[in-house]
Known about the structure:
Blueprint: H1 22-54, H2 58-86, H3 88-107, H4 112-140, H5 144-175, H6 180-199, H7 214-237, H8 242-264, H9 272-276, H10 278-308, H11 313-319, H12 321-342, H13 344-362, H14 371-398, H15 406-441, H16 448-480
Amino acid sequence: xxxxxxxxxxxxxxxxxxxxxxxxxxxxxxxxxxxxxxxxxxxxxxxxxxxxxxxxxxxxxxxxxxxxxxxxxxxxxxxxxxxxxxxxxxxxxxxxxxxxxxxxxxxxxxxxxxxxxxxxxxxxxxxxxxxxxxxxxxxxxxxxxxxxxxxxxxxxxxxxxxxxxxxxxxxxxxxxxxxxxxxxxxxxxxxxxxxxxxxxxxxxxxxxxxxxxxxxxxxxxxxxxxxxxxxxxxxxxxxxxxxxxxxxxxxxxxxxxxxxxxxxxxxxxxxxxxxxxxxxxxxxxxxxxxxxxxxxxxxxxxxxxxxxxxxxxxxxxxxxxxxxxxxxxxxxxxxxxxxxxxxxxxxxxxxxxxxxxxxxxxxxxxxxxxxxxxxxxxxxxxxxxxxxxxxxxxxxxxxxxxxxxxxxxxxxxxxxxxxxxxxxxxxxxxxxxxxxxxxxxxxxxxxxxxxxxxxxxxxxxxxxxxxxxxxxxxxxxxxxxxxxxxxxxxxxxxxxxxxxxxxxxxx
Length: 507
């Protein structure tokens, strides 16, 4: 039996019926989102231990990360659309069960191939789970003030999950075993499954059951796969590899074909009106740019703390806690006070500008920098920056979307973040590696101190690049987001206006 009623007459317009269990639903959704987001970093810290245990090479090591990101990134829009087609509660629970089983399989892996296969399966079910979680939130919270509060929590988790993953990964690897970085998901998923079964409401379908756009799904999945693979290949094999440019060219071609198909498809996977709205386009762009910038902080500050200051994995993870605290504080202040007053046109560029400041401050780190006076301040500023960007962007990205497209619109948020991370991985790592090589070539002989200075110098280059991305994001978001008085263009795929909120019936 479907968890949404079959096609029924369109519900009469009127005040939205608010779910009585909405705050418990938020807790369940937040738990699932945390699991998916932290999994992108929690395994990274476990890689050296896993490599020693299973005996795979340095060249193969990257595939433990890439297998997840390829499956996750390429299937996000399909996962979001499935939640529109078969029901959000059903898709949510299937995603949780699949993610838990894939995590258990990875934790029990006795070979490199088994571990990579499990990571790919995690990506498949994560692609169902992440957009569905956001879609559940979008259709559950319909009162503007409560919606802002809920998205503040969700945005804080989306921004802080990576740092939580670093802390949790370091703790589990240092005091238990690398396999617990995967097993922990089983327990988180079990709690979320129980909560979802009890507290996530069944939706009521107010229109005929939509159909899946199979050609569009194939085109966009192929495009996203090629895009993520191209950037991942650039990181490992360099930008002079024909395969790198071949995959990126294929991604561009498939994306163009997808857009052309969406213009004529009877049942489009992603109606172009969703992404062509100025506010939503600005929100997706902001999430992508923030994803690029945040990568520089998590990766290179972690390298700096462990390789230069000789922190243990747990100490490095703990070092990010003040950043998480500032992110949560900014998310709550922003969604409850500042976004309602100033709107995303002020808050998102403000957050991007803070990101520039934090990145520039990080470029000043050297071999003798102290954590309290030189590392902590930019981390706290970056936390406040992300807390200003993410909740405002996420809320705007799904505001006013017809509820039958809430899943795929939510998937665009996750896709933007994933693509941003892939771009950041390839570009910033490549820049850092080239800078380190150049520094070593000009400082001969290569002593241990020169090697350490080369590493710090390469991190600074990555921070400068991150600052440039944030500066571009500040300018772009200031230009694209509408002023508060301009309103938001809320349209159905056929171009007709729709209401800000769709009726949601509680059961």
